[in-house]
Design goal:
Blueprint (H helix, E strand, L loop, with lengths): L8 H16 L1 H16 L5 H31 L5 H34 L14 H38 L10 H26 L2 H45 L14 H29 L2 H10 L8 E12 L2 H6 L3 H21 L3 E6 L2 E6 L8 H16 L3 E2 L4 E2 L2 E17 L2 E7 L1 H16 L3 E4 H7 L5 E8 L6 E7 L8
Parallel strand pairs: 6-8
Antiparallel strand pairs: 1-3, 1-6, 2-3, 4-5, 6-7, 8-10, 9-10
Length: 503
């Protein structure tokens, strides 16, 4: 979404004009229904007064009331009021507009029926209605005009909300409408109200007058329902269509979706919750990507996928652990600037990481100039001991005589490998936890990496690793040694980085 910008005076004028047209659009419908009645009853002498009063109330007075209702919204669009103080008026705009239209329609209906008793039908005046018909029309007509105006302004509300969302980045959070009530009212007005008017005609008239009233009602219903059905459909289905399209985009992996809330009911609330959900998904993805910078991305993905099942709370599995370190790194760091050192080290670590990933291992964490990798924990890795030794040989070959950074720094790598039971789980306190591997196997691998200095080797593996690998590699025995932290002596074996794996 682009950066929000204030509405221009021309845009504010256009938005106000569109609302006023929508709010007063009931006037031409009323005029059309009046003309139908005058035509079917041949009461043209009453047409000027009836049409004039209709235009006065449904156009003139309605226009003034609508302009008053829109003024707080206009103040917000012009920057004179904040969104929070205007939101209530925005979300209630359809209801408030329709309410005063219904009141005006009731007053108009009473006026028109009153005039029928002040004029003589024989002199060209409109025919007089029965009390039942008058009561029915005084009820049905305001309800119909209310429903029409409500859904017309709801359609406008969707346009207004899209504009506010695009320009100011704000969405509705107040929802006074009820989708079920809207649907029920729409169905009642479109189906029950016309039938009620026709039933009243059958009960009130007969003969030619019945035919006259039925013709009048059928034509009026045809005009009213045609217009109302269009806006009712747009108002009820439009927000659902927008939400459905947005959900489709998210399903395709687009988490940049944020949609405007264009209705003041449960669908609008659902749209707001959808935006909140997508924001949560974006945050989760951002955390996963950020997390993946500090631990192997596959480890981060596994933790996020399995944390809810409690699997990572503690798990024991046979795995192979690999530690690496750079020989003489402290001395190298003395003659490099921090920028040069970090650049060279990052390039070196990228080179070391690749063989580990290729052979199915994951980098759990970086330790200064070295790293700590595991095979078969937390991700499954078939034949993990061999995979770890292959990765170690490939690391030595990849590093070899290569230099890193702009100054061409050479890094000699030491590697320690051990196979055995490993405990893996999320360890920490409060809100700060990390996935950690624990156990004697981990400690032994770290000690073997350090013992390379004493034996002048590049890759040292434990006896357990050698046994699992069998005769796959050319191992050289270095006897047993008491390793700090272990009561039993460890048997050490080195691997020639230039040796070829045996089938």
């Amino acid at each position: 979404m682009s950066t929000p910008s204030a509405a221009t005076p021309a845009e504010v004028t256009a938005l106000r004009r569109r609302y006023l047209l929508m709010a007063t659009s009931v006037a031409p419908i009323d005029a059309a229904i009046t003309l139908v009645f005058m035509a079917t009853s041949a009461a043209w002498s009453a047409a000027p007064v009836s049409l004039s009063m209709g235009l006065l109330l449904m156009l003139g007075v309605n226009f003034l009331l609508s302009r008053w209702l829109f003024q707080p919204i206009q103040d917000h669009l012009e920057g004179k009021a904040d969104f929070d103080s205007t939101e209530r008026r925005i979300t209630q705009l359809p209801l408030l507009t329709a309410r005063h239209v219904a009141i005006l329609a009731f007053a108009l209906a009473v006026f028109r029926f009153t005039t029928t008793y002040l004029t003589d039908p024989a002199a060209g005046g409109p025919p007089r209605s029965t009390p039942a018909d008058m009561i029915a029309i005084c009820v049905i007509l305001p309800i119909f005009y209310f429903t029409y105006t409500y859904f017309v302004v709801c359609d406008y509300l969707a346009h207004l909300c899209r504009f506010v969302f695009q320009r100011y980045g704000r969405n509705l959070t107040l929802f006074y409408g009820r989708y079920t009530v809207k649907l029920i009212v729409a169905l009642l007005v479109i189906s029950v109200a016309p039938l009620a008017a026709i039933v009243v005609d059958f009960l009130s008239y007969d003969g030619e007058r019945l035919q006259l009233e039925l013709s009048n009602d059928i034509l009026a219903v045809a005009i009213g329902i045609t217009m109302s059905a269009y806006f009712i459909t747009r108002s009820l289905l439009g927000p659902i269509r927008i939400l459905s399209q947005a959900m489709g985009e998210v399903a395709k992996g687009d988490l940049g979706v944020r949609v405007p809330v264009t209705s003041n009911d449960e669908v609008g609330s659902l749209t707001g919750q959808f935006n909140t959900m997508v924001e949560g998904l974006r945050e989760r993805e951002r955390i996963r990507e950020t997390f993946g910078r500090y631990v192997d991305e596959s480890v981060a993905a596994t933790i996020l996928q399995r944390e809810g099942a409690g699997v990572l709370a503690g798990e024991t599995r046979e795995a192979t652990i690999l530690f690496t370190d750079i020989a003489g790194f402290t001395t190298i760091a003395e003659y490099l600037t921090p920028e040069e050192l970090v650049a060279a080290l990052n390039e070196y670590l990228e080179t070391v990481i690749e063989p580990i990933r290729v052979h199915g291992g994951v980098v759990n964490t970086f330790i200064g100039d070295g790293l700590f990798a595991s095979f078969n924990m937390p991700l499954a890795c078939a034949d993990h001991a061999r995979a770890a030794v292959r990765a170690a040989i490939d690391i030595q070959r990849a590093v070899g005589d290569r230099t890193f950074g702009d100054l061409g720094v050479a890094f000699a790598t030491r590697i320690g490998i051990s196979t055995g039971q490993v405990i893996g789980g999320s360890v920490g306190a409060g809100q700060r936890v990390s996935f950690t591997l624990l156990g004697d196997t981990v400690n032994l691998a770290a000690r073997l990496e350090q013992l390379n200095k004493e034996y002048g080797t590049r890759i040292l593996v434990s006896d357990s690793t050698r046994r699992v690998c069998g005769e796959a590699f050319a191992f050289t025995a270095h006897g047993s040694v008491v390793v700090r932290g272990r009561s039993d002596a460890a048997t050490l074996f080195s691997v020639d980085p230039n040796s070829q794996e045996k089938p």
